[in-house]
């Protein structure tokens, strides 16, 4: 993957599993990230673990819009 410093990427479900791993990989590549999930505490922990990343957090629950 090339330099992603000019890209803004939104990741839903970023607090664990594939979403968390993707967040870390893309942060290493320099992408600007907006990460979202239900668990704000986990999002904050991820942000703290990536101090060099340009990363914004947003709590969101997309399970049911009805």
In short:
It comes from Enterococcus faecium. The protein has 66 residues and is of the alpha/beta class.
Explain what this protein looks like in three dimensions.
This protein is an alpha/beta fold and 66 residues long. The chain has one domain. The chain contains 2 helices and 3 strands; from the N terminus they run E-H-E-H-E. A 3-stranded parallel β-sheet has the order 1-2-3, with helices on one face. Helix 1 links the parallel strand 1 and strand 2. Belongs to the short-chain dehydrogenases/reductases (SDR) family. This is Short chain dehydrogenase/reductase family oxidoreductase.
Element layout with pairings:
Elements: E1 8-12, H1 17-28, E2 32-37, H2 40-49, E3 55-59
Parallel strand pairs: 1-2, 2-3
Secondary-structure content class = alpha/beta
Low-confidence blocks of residues: none
Number of helices: 2
Principal-axis shape equals globular
Q: What gyration radius follows from the Cα positions, in whole Å? A: 12 Å
Strand order of the largest sheet: 1-2-3
Largest sheet: 3 strands, parallel
Question: Average pLDDT, to the nearest integer?
Answer: 94
The helix fraction, in percent, is 25-40%
- Give the total of domains: 1
The quaternary organization reads as single chain
- Helices and strands, in order, run as EHEHE
GO molecular function: oxidoreductase activity
GO cellular component, one term: membrane
Pfam families: adh_short
Family: Belongs to the short-chain dehydrogenases/reductases (SDR) family.
């Amino acid at each position: 993957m090339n330099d992603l410093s000019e890209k803004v990427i939104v990741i839903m479900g970023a607090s664990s599993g594939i979403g968390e791993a993707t967040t870390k990989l893309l942060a290493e590549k320099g992408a600007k990230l907006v990460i979202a999930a239900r668990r704000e505490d986990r999002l904050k922990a991820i942000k703290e673990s990536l101090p060099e990343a340009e990363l914004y957090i947003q709590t969101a629950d997309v399970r049911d819009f009805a």
